[in-house]
Design goal:
The protein is an alpha/beta fold. The chain is built from six helices and six strands, in the order E-E-H-E-H-E-H-E-H-E-H-H.
Length: 167
Amino acid sequence: TLGSMNFASEASVNSPATIMRLAEIMQNKGIRPELEVFDLGMINFAKILIDKGLIAPPYYFNILLGNPATAQATMLHLATMVNELPHESIWAVAGIGRFQTRANALGVVLGDGVRVGLEDNLWFDQERTKLATNPMLIHRITAQANSLGRPIATALEVRQRLGLQIW
């Protein structure tokens, strides 16, 4: 995560020095980082890392929407963030809590990918009556993509696009 922020009940602190050191370690080990961004300031910090030569393209951004103190799960917020991404960026969309479904739909329609998982939301429905499982969340995204004619990338295709080692 490329900056500090407040969640609903606690702060997440990521100092610039820590972020730069982690980027340096990953670079030295040949690791392509997932760049988690919750707002425009975090995208700007990615550009600082690029200018310092600490990350290389293609840049993989995970845009997280719906946290109370950062960008919201709206078309305007997402479009503004995507507009600021560096050239040669690949991006996915995720949503926090009850905004996961909305953010995932934006990702299916507009993005390069979608992040789903129980880390971001434990519930399958907006009413919070049905606990989610990862297979349920993946099935919902797959069904949305299929209904829109969006192909689902294989693991090999994703690795190739990100410039990762192919096993």
